[in-house]
Sequence to fold (179 residues):
Amino acid sequence: MTETQLPIVGPLVTLRAPRQDDLAPLTAILAEPEVALWWVGYTPERIQSEFIDEPGTTRVIEVEGECAGVLVVLRGADPEYPTTVMHIFIGTRFRGRRIGEEALALGIRAEFAAGISRITLDPNINNEGVIRSYERLGFKRVGVFRDYQVRPGGHLEDAMFLDLTRSDFPDGPPLPPRD
Fold:
């Protein structure tokens, strides 16, 4: 098994490789209006291609045995620039428990352990709640990517560029507190 296939287990979240039986729950999650607002145009075919068939970049976020979303881990290939870009979505019924924060913290810790020194995120600038969540993990605002994302109807919107470095948290960010 490769490192991306081995599960990463936290107090509530497990990050694991995708399986074919994740297709239906991921399709349902990406169809939720609050998720589809930011993750536009996901059909079952696209989900199959981008998430299920990409075990090297996709980690399914599992909570209590259920597929709760995805953490996409895009590690750069150039050793001179040891950076990983991450993207994440979780189903609305899993929100409010800091599941996304735990999933990101676990993924970041694994990337730092593998020698990566910088993690970047690029959420839509209007997704203020998720930006606050990322900042709770220690991410810093670097700047704005102008006209970054094509939105429904064809207009462009900006993204907030955030990063977190291993020098910020040598062992990775702390996991969210659990009661």
User: Anything to note?
Assistant: Strands lie at 8-9, 13-16, 58-63, 66-75, 83-90, 118-121, 140-150, 156-165.
